[in-house]
Design goal:
It contains 17 helices and 17 strands. With about 525 residues, it is of the alpha+beta class. Strand 13 and strand 14 form a beta hairpin. It starts with a helix and ends in an 8-residue tail after the last helix.
């Protein structure tokens, strides 16, 4: 969408670029918003907040009578991604305020106990659940909450209120006949994804630093980190990569055309949800056997997929575990992830592939779509030095140059930010923050050997940091937050970006961490 159209849209809704009068340094307004924008029932934060007339904003999210639209609106209204919560925990854990620290620890309590209000189990595994982490050892990872230390991942997105039934925030309806499993509008996202759980581990270990080391082994933070890391170990494939999720995780995007219009994508997703709601199953010849169980294809896709971004997250989490424990098993697991990451290097484009999928007995790199966060996080997590050691001097700089070319969004003042994939008209505020962290590390690493590259990286950092302040808004007196993105459009990794009036916890927390020079990937 052209910049002029976005600007006119903002004017028509009463919003304007940079209306928050952002100041340099720690922005107390951002901290205040993160403190206040949470569930009054559970204390869990919300991932999003609509800015402006609430109902009007939600009417711009998806089709009114659509399973896909209702689920998306419900997540925006009441959901919390455990990745977003982890960033929130890292910020509040660093303010020096004991009440903030207590708030930051609250999610750890829920994850460790395994329940949240009406959700009696937010952990995944065998024993009354479909999720199997290792078909050769199906009982190794359990959902039995009494078996602490042996349980599986936390579900990636949960209702922050811990509430099962909901209303559609666009029009207040409580029923939709084509809704999956039950016509009552209810929570419908139960995916134990590896990457988000790595962030739970990282946040827990960041918070662990606030306790005396003698108390670490018995703390919920450390035990939770150990337990989730153990579950991840059962998903580490023979190529070294950690699979995206256990068997049984529902994949709804099979054969969905990512380059189609929002309406056609929504229709395809709704049609699939309706089919499965009416008991559709793939013919027997399409089933896949793992261990002694035959699985439908939509329950195997995630298990046969490896995400590079997920593995970079786990690499950072494992490094933290190794630093705190000195146990060689974490170092070994890191080495295996390195083997995987090297296998998805694209020497022609000078970028990393988004991931790999298991096809016809082998792991095949996913050459498309291009993922911006993979490139930025590779530089930030692995470091420019390691990347250059692997692939030659200047490779880390080359990755950024390719990323900027493929996905940079430019304005009159230069580089304003980056998108999600190959695109030059959409800004992801959150992924731009990751890019800022990456170029900051490039600038330091190349300062003495390639000062011109270092200077260029410094300029990109300054330009992007200024650019994203176009998406900074006052919410209430004393509170401010950042948008999720600049345009609503399908992201080829499986979700829609949002229009500017939808504010984001991830964007806001990332930029506080950036401004405070806190690296989420390092202890």
């Amino acid at each position: 969408m052209p910049l002029l159209i976005i600007s006119l849209f903002l004017m028509s809704t009463g919003l304007c670029w940079g209306q928050g009068e952002k100041s340099i340094g720690l922005d107390q307004k951002l901290i205040n918003w993160m403190r206040e924008h949470k569930s009054p029932v559970t204390g869990m934060p919300f991932s999003f907040e609509p800015l402006g007339t609430r109902q009007d904003v939600f009417k711009g999210v998806g089709l009114e009578y659509s399973t896909t639209g209702i689920i998306e609106r419900t997540i925006i209204d009441q959901g919390i991604s455990i990745y977003d919560a982890a960033l929130w925990q890292m910020v509040l854990g660093q303010t020096g305020d004991q009440q903030d620290l207590a708030m930051a620890l609250r999610p750890i309590e829920y994850y460790w106990e395994g329940s949240l209000n009406e959700f009696f189990n937010i952990r995944s595994g065998s024993d009354n659940q479909i999720f199997i982490y290792d078909p050769n050892h199906p009982k190794a990872v359990t959902s039995d909450l009494s078996k602490k230390g042996q349980r599986g991942f936390v579900f990636r997105i949960i209702n922050a209120n811990g509430q099962y039934c909901s209303t559609d925030p666009a029009d207040g309806k409580t029923r939709y006949e084509d809704y999956p499993n039950d016509p009552r509008i209810h929570w419908e996202d139960w995916k134990p994804i590896a990457g988000e759980n790595a962030w739970v581990v990282m946040a827990a270990l960041h918070l662990l630093k606030h306790q005396p080391s003698a108390q670490w082994p018995s703390s919920s933070e450390f035990r939770l980190a150990q337990e989730l890391t153990r579950a991840a170990s059962y998903l580490q494939a023979d190529n070294g990569g950690i699979r995206m999720a256990p068997l049984g995780t529902y994949y709804h995007l099979m054969d969905i055309p990512s380059d189609a219009s929002e309406e056609k994508i929504t229709q395809a997703l709704d049609h699939r949800a309706k089919m499965f709601n009416h008991g559709y199953s793939f013919p027997h010849q399409y089933l896949k056997r793992f261990g002694s169980i035959d699985y439908q294809p939509y329950h195997t896709w995630y298990y046969e997929e490896i995400s590079t971004e997920n593995n970079l997250s786990w690499y950072a989490a494992l490094r933290m575990m190794y630093q705190l424990t000195g146990q060689s098993k974490y170092l070994v697991a890191m080495g295996r992830i390195e083997d995987y990451i090297k296998s998805v290097w694209d020497p022609k484009e000078k970028v990393f592939y988004q991931g790999a999928h298991f096809k016809e007995g082998a792991w095949v790199p996913n050459k498309d779509p291009f993922a911006v966060d993979v490139q930025d996080w590779a530089i930030a997590v692995l470091g420019p030095e390691k990347i250059d050691e692997w692939f030659g001097e200047g490779t880390a700089y080359g990755i950024w140059r390719s990323t900027r070319t493929f996905s940079g969004v430019y304005g009159p003042d230069g580089l304003q930010g980056v998108g999600f994939t190959k695109e030059n008209d959409r800004v992801s505020i959150e992924w731009t923050a990751g890019a800022i962290l990456a170029v900051r590390k490039l600038a330091v690493y190349y300062a003495s050997t390639h000062p011109d590259w270092s200077q260029e990286a410094n300029h990109d950092e300054t330009s992007m940091r200024t650019g994203v302040d176009r998406y900074y808004f006052n919410v209430r007196p004393g509170e401010a937050a950042y948008s999720y993105s600049s345009i609503r459009r399908w992201i080829p990794f499986g979700w829609f970006s949002h229009k500017v009036p939808i504010l984001s916890l991830a964007s806001t927390a990332w930029l506080v961490l950036i401004d405070e020079n806190i690296d989420p990937f390092e202890l």
